[in-house]
Amino acid sequence: MRHDIALIKLNAPVQFSDVVRPACLPSLGWDLRVGSLCYVTGWGETRGTGFNHALKQTDVSIMPKSNCSFEEHSQICVKNQKGFQSTCHGDSGGPLACKLGGRWYVMGATSYGTMGNFMHGLCAMPEQRTVFMKMSDKADWIQKMIDMYS
Within 10 Å of residue 109's Cβ, how many Cβ atoms? Predict the structure, then answer.
């Protein structure tokens, strides 16, 4: 899944508030250090209970690329920090958000897990890694699309 990304154009402006704020996108070539702490959010499966009615969040740490099997220049590997909490079926496309220098950045988009069976809600195993599409790898394309369709 080398290009696991999509952009949408909204029909109306986003109404920002205390709980709805923009996040930054990384520049081309930005990489996260191994061990960096980030957060994932999603509405997906939680242990066979179906999709959530509330947005869930958990923290993850950036792992060495050797811990996942993937196209390393366009993807990021993370490990769940809280035992049995991670992404699952229904979380695809959700953000990998990291706070860097006091600003929030969307560093990746949820792509897939390395273990478990996402289709049956068997996710967040202790040794599971989650693979994210790396936003910094797509920075030029994202800017080109924004310029073209704005």
Answer: 19
User: Considering the entire predicted model, what is its pTM?
Assistant: 0.82
**Residue 5 gets which letter from DSSP?**
-
- Per-residue confidence (pLDDT) for residue 56, from 0 to 100: 81
DSSP state of 74: T
Q: What DSSP letter does each residue of 97-114 carry, written as one string?
A: EEEETTEEEEEEEEEEES
The answer to whether 23 and 95 have CB atoms below 8 angstroms apart is yes
Mean pLDDT of 134-145: 90
| Under 8 Å between Cβ of 46 and 26 | no
CB atoms within 10 A of CB 30: 15
pLDDT tens digit sequence for 33-79: 999 999 988 877 665 666 667 788 888 989 888 777 766 678 888 88
Tokens read off for 27:
């520049």
Confirm if 85 and 130 have CB atoms less than 8 A apart.
no
Place of tokens 């990021």: 76
